[in-house]
Fold this sequence. Notes:
Helix content: 40-55%
Number of helices: 5
CATH topology: Rossmann fold
Shape: globular
Number of strands: 7
Structural class: alpha/beta
Oligomer: single chain
Strand order of the largest sheet: 3-2-1-4-5-7-6
CATH superfamily: Vaccinia Virus protein VP39
Number of domains: 1
Amino acid sequence: MIWGIGLFIIAVALLFFFWFFPVFFNGIPWQPTDMKRVRRMLEMAEVKPDEVVYDLGCGDGRIIICAAREFGARAVGVELNPWLYFLALVKVWVRGLSRRVKVIFGNLHQVDLKEADVVTIFLYSHVNDLLQEKFQRELKPGARIVSYVWVLKNWKPVAVDSEHDLYLYVKNGAGW
């Protein structure tokens, strides 16, 4: 009986730890983006067939799945939370999108973005601030970033959708 209670407590502690793992290390809890806003993000970025869309902190994979299914893009999601990573993998597999959509278990700061045409983010402002140098260094001219809620400090968006709280940035030869 004691072993059973001990194992239960350990299981609950592990579940708690893995669910909040990203919060401990990155301060980013999961909050899913509604599908109307997901579509609007991809429309704002003018995603074209076979372009590569990255979603940093992809959660359950809804943006990368929508990019592949509705826009014909190839998509890559990056997720650090093991439960959400697994959920995104399952959703991609169930929808038969494994050839067009890739889910990476890892830290968004360590993923190479050189092939990205579009990057979507719904992260806190301090995380966006940390990513700006990476975006500047790795994204090619013409790459687009759509940020939900939080602006990118000192960069001027080329379009703002106030109704959906979205900001579009486009990299040009001189920067942003």
